[in-house]
Amino acid sequence: MKDNTVPLALVGILADGEFHSGEHLGETLGMSRAAINKHIQTLKDWGLDVFTVTGKGYSLSAPLQLLDEESIARQLDQNPVAVIPVIDSTNQYLLDRMDSLQSGDACVAEYQQAGRGRRGRQWFSPFGANLYFSMYWRLEQGPAAAMGLSLVIGIVMAEVLKQLGADEVKVKWPNDIYLHDRKLAGILVELSGKTGDAAQIVIGAGINLAMRSADTTVVNQGWVTLQEAGINIDRNVLTAMLVNKMRHTLLEFEREGLAPFVQRWSVLDNYLNRPVKLLIGDREVLGIARGIDQQGALLLEQDGVTKAWVGGEISLRPQQ
Q: pTM score, two decimals?
């Protein structure tokens, strides 16, 4: 893997949002101004806005709060979280190490080179703008017991964000977080294990905190950031709170399943009692969303009859 030591050192210097001359950066990092310029291009490739002004040097478009492993560790109830600034994918990092992990082990990144969303989609992951996070969990009851897990993770994320001031955050079945009817965060649960064996699970989440501009070839739906909504959250506090609450909640889910969470989902449900369309492959089903059942299936009312659906994706139906 490429050595990112110098670009990361550059980010650390530029994170204050002030201008730094090429000469100063070169002296600090022990290299020529031409070499500095080459590494600045790496920062741009990572999705950072770097301004170059003759006579002043280089500056980020805004100060950057970097993830701090020690700060996060101080706020955790138990095991630390691995902070890996540049990574292919936080989920893949844990999937590659599952045999040596314990339930609750987690990692977080500044930038994903190959972030993944649901159904094999790419997850747009610019450096330092958002939160990219994954946790490992071993579910002894096996894969069948994981039914509804993504809903529980959605509840945890929404409740933590509300605690931190994002009062209007909602959940969208089966695994997104919404704010003002636009996508704020996504969840990807990857599971392996045969019936009769324990399920090995990696839970990934991406939360849009301050994404500046999205690559429209990757992001093809309405999205929103907390910053755009006027909400600024400390990324280290958010990481620690998410990890603590997920570890606690997954133990509860292991003991009691989805049942205790159905009412909590109902309180947060972005589409409850609203007209939606459910897309399953090429099929489109219209109805009124009526929440979820005890197994986590979507309840959809059509012509006075409510039926449970376990697959597909929903979106709001345009008003007639």
A: 0.86
